[in-house]
């Protein structure tokens, strides 16, 4: 039922004078092309959650997200595709149904429950989760962003689909994608995570919580200098870079996740961070629906 038998997402090679001069090979894993509607790391994370829901014979799915969340969008799409009722706790307190993400979720038939920011902060609290289990019986609960043990399995599969490389790079929000990729790459490959949040040193702890084995690995690192002001924030320079990549390489980027990672990676290449003849794979984790939200808020 939930087997993703569609083709694996393609890998795109980037040709640029900078890369030639530095003798760097740069490939982009185009997980934004993984599925027509549920792309990137959100499908990778949801796939095994859905298999677990089926195994437990649950009737519905419940999760959490901000009003412009990629995870909210993907969950609503999955709900429609597989005919699984979905309840989404939305950080509120009000639903703006002109918001393109929420409008899509509503059109998919997802049940949206706006809560105050105060209540939303309880989304990891065990007592709050128990209350939700009573309110929504026989419902499978997925954490915000989809990051849990089942998500790691899907992200490990992503890593195992990659060609051999010296470095793998990805954007880091909640840490789930990064923690899963770490399980799927050889220990000779370095994994670099570009944090999209400001002051997110806690991500180290989150990754170790999700993947305790990571404590014994020495092939991973989180980079905290490329958040460009914090989550959801971005400079004109970053946005110009995203537009250049879209125009020149037909590589669409949004400036919240993958755009920040690619721009940070580009700066590291300019700064000779990588040894000559390095082969780098950058993961495009999707999230392009976020561009509609940025346009709606007149931020681009």
From TrEMBL:
Top-level taxon in the UniProt lineage: Bacteria
Pfam families found in the cross-reference section: PALP
Keyword Thylakoid in annotation: no
Domain (Tryptophan synthase beta chain-like PALP) ranges: 17-286
N6-(pyridoxal phosphate)lysine: modified positions: 42
Native organism: Pseudoalteromonas luteoviolacea NCIMB 1942
Keyword field: Pyridoxal phosphate
Keyword check for Nucleotide-binding: no
Family: Belongs to the ACC deaminase/D-cysteine desulfhydrase family.
Residues annotated as catalytic: 69
InterPro entries listed in its UniProt record: ACCD_DCysDesulf (IPR027278), TrpB-like_PALP (IPR001926), TrpB-like_PALP_sf (IPR036052)
GO MF annotation: an example: D-cysteine desulfhydrase activity
Cofactor(s) in the UniProt record: pyridoxal 5'-phosphate
Coiled-coil ranges (or none): none
Record protein name field: Tryptophan synthase beta chain-like PALP domain-containing protein
Gene3D superfamilies given in the database record: 3.40.50.1100
